[in-house]
Amino acid sequence: MTYEFADCVLDENAHRVLCAGEPVHVEPQVFDLLVALARAAPGMLRYDDMFELVWHGRIVSDATLSARISSARAAVGDSGKAQAVIRTIPRRGIQMACPVRVNDAVGAASPPCQPAPSSTAVHQTIRYIASADGTEIAYAESGDDGPPLLRGAHWISHLEHDWQSPVWRPWRDRLRAGRLRIRYDARGTGLSERQPVRQMQADFVADMVAVTNATGKDAIDIFAASQSVPIALAFAALWPARVRRIVLVNGFAQGSYVRGHRGETDAMIAMIRAGWGLPGSPFVKAVATVFMPRATEDERASFVEMQTYSASPDGAAAIRDAVGRFDVTDILSQVIAPVLVMSSSGDAVQPPAQSRLLARALPNAEFCSLDTDNHAIAPSDPAFSTMMDATDRFLAG
Question: C-alpha distances in angstroms, 381 versus 78, 170, 204, 286, 376?
Answer without folding.
Answer: 26, 12, 30, 19, 10
